[in-house]
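Appendix B, record 7
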Amino acid sequence: MRKYLLLLLILMVNEVFSQKNIGVPISSIKKKYKESKYQLKQNKEDNGTITIDIRLQNAAATYTFDNSKLSTMLVITPFDRKSLNKYISEYDSKYKRLNSETTKWEVETKYSEEVSIVEHIILSQITAKNGEIWYNLIWVFE
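C-alpha cells (predicted):
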C-alpha cells in the first residue's frame, strides 16, 4: 500500500504544484517565462544551488532548485505595498491562514484520505540598514 501511495504521489507532483510551480523542473519554469518581458536570469551559487530570477508585472520572483533540478522554493518580492496587499488579499481568499507568530498560509491539496500535500506561504519582512522595509512571500514545504 505504501509503495502504491508513493508512486501515486510521484505521478501527481507536476499537477499538485502547478499553482506556483513548486516541484517542477527548471525546463518548465524557463518555458513558462520564456518571453523577454520576464527578464529571466539563471544563476549558480558558490554551493551549486541554481536559482532563476524573474521579473513579474508587480513583483520579482526567485525560484530555487535542488540537485535534481526541481524547484523547492519560490520567493516573491512585491515591488510596492499595493502589490503586497494584492498578494495578501489573493492568498486570504484562496488559502487557509494559520494562527502563528508570523503571517502564514497553508496550501493543502488532498487527493484521498491518505494522500495530501501541504505547502506553506510565509510573509517575511526584511529591514535594510537604511531603514527601508521589504516584504517577501516565501513558498516552501515545511
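Remarks on this record: Residues 42 and 52 are 4 Å apart (CA to CA). Residues 1-19 have pLDDT under 50 and may be disordered.
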